[in-house]
Amino acid sequence: MLKYTDYDIVFSEVPGEVTLALNMSLCPNRCEGCHSPQLRLDIGEELTLEAVSTLINRFSPGITCVSFMGGDNDPQALAALVSKVRQLYPTLKFAWYSGCAALPSGMKPQTWNYIKLGPYIPSCGSLRKPTTNQHLYRIDGDGKMNDITSVFWKK
Ligand code: SF4
Hints:
Bound molecules: iron/sulfur cluster
Shape: globular
Strand order of the largest sheet: 3-1-2-4-5-6-7-8
Number of helices: 2
Number of domains: 1
Structural class: alpha/beta
Low-confidence stretches: none
Strand content: 15-25%
């Protein structure tokens, strides 16, 4: 099952996009220095197609992207959900912020327009630090993953 606790409209998590970001709970990761430890818990509401659609309709046409912040507990369910949402909103882009170090087996990159991979490691820092272990990829239509992490380091 996928669950979310809250959402926000953000401007820098996905470069060049106005993004509806959904914060998802049930995180199976245990990053040292986790910024939101409550997201490891079984809290929030179930993230269904209806729930995502309701939020998109509330913020359209102002948003250009929807980002799922989490969902590592069930990537297959997340991919299935996003495929359905994409059919309903073909002009929107879709991003996944995952704490996994690598794409889970069975997850096709082209499910997404953007994928962020990597756990948070305090000594490496966030995406905004050149020392980060995390990567943000822009995905081509054929599934090619282009590492665009360095856009966060330019002023
Ligand atoms: S991926 Fe890591 S930092 Fe993010 S909520 Fe899970 S444990 Fe915390």
